[in-house]
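Student: Please help interpret what follows.
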Amino acid sequence: MLIKKNKKTSQNCKMVLQYHPQSAIMKRVVEKGSLNELVKLLQFKQSSQVQYFNPSFFLFNGHLQTIFNPFAALYMKKHNPIKFDREIFEFSDHGTIALDWVDLNPNKDVYNNKPILAIMPGLTSDNDEIYVLNMLIEAKLRGYQGVVINHRGSSGLDLTSPRIYCASSQDDLREAVNFIVNNYCSSLSRNRQRDIFLVGNSLGANLLANYLGEEGQQCPVKAACCVQPPMKIWVFSQTIRNTLYGFYDKVVAANLKKKFKHFAPGLRDRYKNELGIDIDQAIKDVKSSLDLDFTTAKAFGYESPEDYQHKASCIEKIPAIKTPTFIIMSKDDPLVGGEDCIDYEVCKKNPYVLLGVTHDGGHLGFFSSILSTKQWHVKPAFDFLDTFK
């Protein structure tokens, strides 16, 4: 429902959609109409507007939207309506992750032919983040089989190999997706029986965009949505260190430090013998997220933190994406860098990419009310995915 506002405020509530002028994605979106209720097409132009998101009066800027997220999550986690059935997936290096299926995993529900919706959480995040749960609730309502593809050492699992994850760990995502496709999307003769859709959030969105770009035409994914990826990780790194006196940097560093302490027993020998890194001392010395980028860069074969930040950024892979992809961004995102992180031209040059940018929303916020745990961005994300269902 549209809420009337004054001219200035209404302008701020629009999501501007940017796309290639001959985009087959927008043609299909418009013709099939999943986004039609929200989209007002500007004929003969390369953009349209969704006049819908009304941020809560009490959450009137990106900082408040972002900071409200963990508080809303406390209530959401306590009253979590999602029940998971866990499947352990083993990588080729014997590392493991949890595939957390909603209700029943496909091994126990062989007659389920619903399309699969796989979700990747953000940095240091687990399967019970509010944005993950909101996506899974909507997926269930819209007839998808939801599953969370967790990171290594996340959602209650320990490391089973001396390897963690970073912003360029799309090989992990590739193995997990291939496993799901080969086992649950194909018949014995390997004829596709049901489709798979992917949604990535924050770092998970960066991994997803990198994966889609590397797979190109061979990608088995029907359509994808990347919610607020740090397109330019170097901008993200600078932004969190320079915003609110480094508040976000301290929070990110503390979360990473906690994760690395959890990882340390499984990493200690490899880091010392192969990389010459005393992982315990490295963790102890962490004062900023940049400190851990030195360790990450060395562990994943990059020359420096700067080399890692540039080469791991999905802006390098977006031009090669050949899967219909909706990228959702907010101008007031205080973590990834807002407009400084959004590359409109790169996105608009790729006919497979639809870029949606709001004025408000913060980072993984999009709260319309402080009395609700619902997040607005979930609806347009699924309206896009439903177009290709």
